[in-house]
Amino acid sequence: MSVRIDETDRKILGVLQQDASQSLDEIAAKIGSSKTPVWNRIRKLREAGIIGQQTVVLDAEALGFEACFFVLIRTSEHEADWQAAFLKALRARPEVQEAHRLAGDIDYILKVRVKNARAYDAFYQALISEVRVHNVTALLSMEEIKSTTMLPLSSV
């Protein structure tokens, strides 16, 4: 379903990106509308797949997940069976917050959140026991400077 996004939709999406737990009344007040039109637009955006799953953002460090690694993976395997096993292994690991297949010298990059370096090593050992990789480079993030899930809606 293709949906045309107008300025009011962008305002609603912007408000929801900041805090999706707000009531319809609060959202409507912020965008200068009333509750029913806002609800209808949100429903339309959900049905179109523009608004997906709604969750909460947890503070990883407050929960003891102090280490964030970016894992660069090179592989010499590109067959469908290997890729299926690799994707299955990644999806089964809750430590993997993001996984991307890349163009260029690196085949995959993972964002892995763990409690410490020892926990990362356990993750690494388990991963390489399931799938063969040519080269793995782990980069420890020293400081998170910016992290957001918000999209730049002004360019939509």
UniProtKB/TrEMBL annotation:
HTH asnC-type domain residues are 5-66
Q: Which residues form a coiled coil?
A: none
Question: Pfam families, alphabetically?
Answer: AsnC_trans_reg, HTH_24
By what name is this protein known?
Glutamate uptake regulatory protein, putative
Record's GO cellular component, any one?
A: cytosol
Sorted alphabetically, the Gene Ontology BP terms of this entry are:
regulation of DNA-templated transcription; response to amino acid
UniProt keywords, alphabetically: DNA-binding, Transcription, Transcription regulation
Whether Cytoplasm counts among this entry's keywords is no
